[in-house]
Amino acid sequence: MRKKIVAANWKMNMLQVEAAEFVRDLLQELGDQTAAEVVIVPPFTAIPRVVEALGGAEHVKVGAQNMYWERSGAYTGEISAAMLRNLFVRYVVLGHSERRQLFGETDEMVNRKVHAAQDATLRPIVCVGETLKQRDAGQVEEVLEGQLRRGLAGLETKAFTETVIAYEPVWAIGTGRNATPAQAQEAHAFIRSVLRELADDATAARIRIQYGGSVKPDNARALMSQPDIDGALVGGASLEARSFAQIVLAAAEDALDEERLSS
Ligand code: 13P
User: Fold this and answer.
1) Residue-level pLDDT at 174
2) How far apart are CA 230 and CA 244, in angstroms?
3) How far is the CA of 235 from the centre of ligand 1 (A)?
4) Residue of 215, 218, 238 best suited for mutating to test ligand 1, as the one with most atoms within 8 Å of CB
5) What is the CA(216)–ligand 1 centre distance, in A?
6) Cβ-count burial of 90 within 10 angstroms (0-12 exposed, 13-18 middle, 19+ buried)?
7) Whose Cα sits closest to atom 9 in ligand 1?
8) Is the dihedral of CA 16, 84, 39, 57 positive or negative?
C-alpha cells in the first residue's frame, strides 16, 4: 500500500516568525498521527527556522520549492541539492507550473534537476499538469505523457520509487476551482499507466501521485479516496495550520479506512 503524502507548498509566503508559529500550531493539531506523511515546503529563507521549530519531530519532513542542478560554482542566486541536504531537507518540488510559466523552466531542465536531486538523496516531487487551453483542446494525455517522459528520462527503477509525482492542472491552481475527484482520478490513472511504461508494473504501483490545485479541508476527503490519488500538494490552504492539518487528517482517515478494508 502507498503511504499518503500531504505537502504544504507555501510558495513566496511566510516570514520566519510566522513559520515557527505555524509549526508549533501544526504539531498541536496533528497530535501523533502517522498514517499520512507530512511535508512542509517553506521558502528557502524559512527552512532553518522550520527545522528548528520541528525539534526533531520525525513525522513531519521538510522540502524545498526548487533547486539548481549544478553542485557548486558561479551560479548567482541559485541553491544546490547539497545545500538543501545540509539543512536537513528531504524533498524538493521540481517543475511547478509557476516555475515553468513564470521562469521558463522546461522539461529538460526539470530532468537535470531530478537527476541532481536523486544523486544527493533528495526526493523529488515532480509537478505535471495541463493548462485550460490544453484541456479544452483535448490534449491532457499528450501533455502529461510528454512532461513525464522528458522530465523523468534516464531514471533507474529505485530512483522512480523515491520520486513523487504531483498532478496539478494549471487551471485549478489558486483559482478555487479544483478538478472533480473523477477528473483527477482519470488523470492520475493515466499518469500511472505512463509510469508503468517508463519503469515497470510493480514500480509504478509504488509511486505516489499527489493531486494539487485548490485542495481545501472540504474537498480533501473526496479527492483522497480515489484509488490513484495518494495525497495532496496544497498551496493556499497550507498557509494556515488549522486548515492544512484538516487536510492531513482527511488523508490519514482515508488511509486508515483502506487499511481496515484490506485486513
Ligand atoms: P492552491 O492550493 O493555492 O491552488 O495551489 C496549488 C499548488 O500550486 C500547490 O503546489
Assistant:
1) 87
2) 16
3) 3
4) 215
5) 10
6) middle
7) 235
8) negative
Q: Which is catalytic among the residues 96, 105, 115, 130?
A: 96
Burial letters 138-154, b for 16+ CB under 10 A, else e: eebeebbbebbeebbee
Q: Which domains does the chain have, with CATH numbers?
A: 5-262 (3.20.20.70)
* Distance between CA atoms of residues 147 and 106, nearest Å: 9
pLDDT score recorded for residue 192: 98
| Positions in the chain short of pLDDT 70 | none
Which three cell numbers mark 7? 505537502
Instruction: Check pocket membership of 92 for ligand 1, CB cut-off 6 A.
Output: no
Amino acid at 231: G
DSSP letter string, 17-55: HHHHHHHHHHHHHHTT--SSEEEEE--GGGHHHHHHHHT
Residue whose grid cell is 476551482: 177
CA distances from 141 to 58, 98, 169 (A): 37, 20, 12
pTM of the model: 0.97
pLDDT digits over 120-148, tens only? 999 999 999 999 999 999 999 999 999 99
**Dihedrals phi, psi of 7, to nearest 5 degrees:** -120, 145
